[in-house]
Amino acid sequence: MIDVVSVDAVKEIVDKGNRFTIIVHRNPDGDAIGSALAWAHYLRLKGKFVDIIAPNSFPDFLKWLPGSDNILLYDTMKNDADALLCSSDAIFCLDFNAMSRVADIADVVNELDIPRLLIDHHLYPENNFTVSISNITSCSTAELVYRLIYALGDDDMLNKDMAECIYTGIMTDTGNFAYASNRKEIYIIVARLIEAGIDKDKIYRRVFYNYSIDRLRLFGFVMNEKLQVFSNYNASIMTLSHNEIKRFNAVKGDTEGLVNMPLQIKGLRFSCFLREEYPGKINVSLRSVDDFPCNKVAAEFFGGGGHKNASGGEYIGRIEDAVALFKEAIAKYSNELTN
What is the predicted pLDDT for the residue at 305? Predict the structure, then answer.
């Protein structure tokens, strides 16, 4: 899954360097934070100085992860983050395939003449990385981090902190093993993580049983008032305006998992969630089951992409117009949705 040439290149850069920075994509999720923290723990055990920079904040339900309190947020600590980037011997880019995904961090990184290493599992990675550990068949970037550590001959260094971070990345990016997780190798890795001391049931509770009453009320509101089901197309859409989000005091991560819920409806194959980040800017989340390629819809209609069953994009304009565009999409893909 990881070629020997790439492993040797990573080893050489790690052995020669002393200070590294890890960056993740904007609005980092469980896989981005989990894989970054796991790789940071590994590098520190190798005696390296390591920092993690995220473009903006990440959900509260990930803040229990070991080392998460030391992650720098670029939008609030730009000067400190820039100084770390400029003093790095190499930069590790985790869980994204294009520098545009890291927002303003890209402006600094693109000016640096140091190795830039990619560890990622998304489609169509850019070719401007010194080393690219990229495999779209991996269920998560966290899986790739574990495989890389193993390929480097350092599986014996796996400890509980690293294992908790890797498991969280795998668990969240597979929807708790509901998709992209039908390979036995994933469960062999999970068994190794349990050997390292994780309590996978406790991790599940920390991630999924860690919300406020406002979040539950928000979910109830969306399910009752905002869900539209298009039975003829086996598809659904939900929307949340900026004002509705404020009404329920939603914090970072409170809408996580919402897009998956309509897929519990019998026969439904495609779910869309439109969240107005601020007036005029709409985040698009898409989920599907079976062989329906929601990443094609994301790319064609919402300027995004991702995995076959989990993708996203954005829309600049009004929510009503984004809904109309979604209706065009399901009409165009009606054969794939109904067959």
Answer: 85
